[in-house]
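Structure ticket #2291
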Amino acid sequence: MSTDYEELLGEEFNGNAPAAAEGIAAAERALSKPLPRDFQEFLQLTNGGEGHIGDNYVMLWRAEELGRYNEDYQVTEYAPGLLLFGSDGGGEGFAFDTRTTPPTVVTVPFVGMSLKYAKPVALTFTAFLEKLGE
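Resolution: structure written out below.
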């Protein structure tokens, strides 16, 4: 059964056009990591976007931006094992913790980024969206 992302995202989230399969594959090559299956499914329906989900403002990055943003924020140096995929539009990043199987979703501050400040949010990307909408 596929996830109803439109319902999870709500009316105040402005999604982008779907990502091409090659764009997702290129992101995985740039990151040297596979993206979680439910996140890939999300990207195939809406390649990131921004807006409110419930009371929370979110910016979810395009597949093409994932490698660059993770490099720009020097994630492998400051928080190895995390894979940033978006932010709250302020000081917190949303990331997959690839040290777990399957990767869980955490928040991490952009300033002072460190694994010790990573806070668990949800067990999956879909559960993360559900939690935002609560």
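Closing remark: Strands lie at 13-15, 49-53, 56-60, 82-87, 92-97, 104-109, 119-122.
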